[in-house]
Amino acid sequence: MSAAIDAFLAMLAAERGAAANTLAAYRRDLEGAEELIGALDTAPAQRFADLSKAWRDLASATVARKASALRQFLGFMVDEGWRSDDPSPALPRPAARRPLPKILDHAQVEALLARAEEEATSGRPAAVRMLALLELLYGSGLRATELMSLPISAVPRDAPFVTVTGKGGAARMVPVSGRASAALSNWLEVRPRGSKYLFPSGKTHLSRVRLFQLVKELAARAGLPPERVSPHVLRHAFATHLLEGGADLRVLQTLLGHADIATTQIYTHVDAARLVALVNERHPLASRRGGD
Fold this sequence. Notes:
The chain is built from 15 helices and 4 strands. The protein is mostly helical and 292 residues long. It has a two-stranded antiparallel sheet. Strands 3-4 form a two-stranded antiparallel sheet. β3 and β4 form a beta hairpin. The termini are far apart.
């Protein structure tokens, strides 16, 4: 079935602009299903129903992701004539609840930044780079992949923005704070020459895995639990702290590069306590006492 899977992935890349990491995840899920039930173009519908038992020990979100990949692939095979029937109704449909994102409070972010700033004063390129990475993760809310793949041309010298290519190849302008601009300027002074990437490493750019390692190592040096800190946690902190400061949800959607505002709305649950306090303080009836 590798030919059908390859054709399906090629379609995702061409028509939906799926990123390399997304394509790799689809391939893992589809090939994993083949290992369990056999060739996906000939397996009977009952074999697809058996996946519920095979996946029973997995988290509901994982089952939902695997089933979604299979449904899309089965629909593709029907359209392309690989199958005459669509057994996707036999796939499990778990009621997956989206977990609330992990976040850092203001004091924890300050501790992380303070440690990075202290180390950057040494002038060591690795420390200067770490501060620039941290300022862009927390100050601009970039995804790890977006940050790592930034070309140096994406950072204009005369405007407080960077041009980011997000999921699906969608480009957006992301504001860069004064702090981040200063950190970037310092990094550009010591950055190795000869690469088109803002954060070069070897022949390409710093990897996502290495970025995760660097952030966790910095967290440990700052006295924070490394398991609670990651590039994505810093992106969540960016979004949550902006919302706490009164940012509009639509603006936040644009900054984060979410295609659907429903994805952005998860932060309203994280910030529920602030919203309750806001209603109690600002609602016209808040000033009226029960006996008035």
